[in-house]
Amino acid sequence: MLTIRKAGERGYADHGWLRTSHTFSFADYHDPAHMGFRALRVINEDRVEARAGFGRHGHRDMEIISYVLSGALEHRDSTGAAGVLRPGEVQRMTAGTGVMHSEANPGDEEVHFLQIWILPDKAGLTPGYEQKAFPEAERRGALRLLVSPTGEQGSLRIHQDAKLFGTLLSAGESVTHELAAGRHAWLQVARGTVELNGVELRAGDGATVSREERLTLVAREPAEALLFDLA
């Protein structure tokens, strides 16, 4: 069974320096029908103008994943971690007992990225940070594992029974994913147009998948997507 979350139905806010779309309830956007899906709590599509960003602020008891589509995103946090995230790189921050961090666009062009929050499997974890590049060749025409609970296949390790895959597809290319009994999935289309088990999805659209054994994703034009495999 597929349930579609259309891009145009998401919450939206324009703060001038930040334009953001919320798949699930977040900040001033509240919709009781869209509070998250399984352990997936937040998918925000953010566009931050040049030389602007999120000032120092705190998080706790959340796994936070950042995925840049264009531009660059600079990260600094109270653990001493710092880095600049660019397309093809993925960042995982465990907020755990509490972390202060900032995110800024250090460049002269807009940064476009997805901010993803996943509920951890337990509270009070030690804060931590990882960042890794996943070359385009590894994601091209394939579902590349980016995040997992075990860190297998060189993925970033998350404290939850959830896996995140990324794919880049040319027009006409397809990938499949077997969904184990009792598992669920969320597909988020970052760019382009695809069909998921025959249902068309465009950039910004998301879809829940439950009680399906196989997911087949076909690109109708060059596309980029993220697939979450969830308990």
Polypeptide structure, described:
By secondary structure, the chain is an all-beta fold. It has a single domain, classed as Jelly Rolls, CATH 2.60.120. Helices cover 2% and strands 55% of the residues. It has 1 helix and 22 strands. A 7-stranded mixed beta sheet has the order 1-20-17-22-15-13-14. A hairpin with a 4-residue loop joins β7 and β8. The longest helix is centred in the middle third of the chain and has 4 residues. The protein is globular and about 45 Å long. The protein starts with a strand and ends with a strand.
Overall residue-averaged pLDDT value? 95
Q: Which fold name corresponds to the CATH topology?
A: Jelly Rolls
Largest sheet, in brief, is: 7 strands, mixed
- The total beta strand count reads 22
Report the CATH architecture. Answer: Sandwich
Given this structure, which CATH class is correct? Mainly Beta
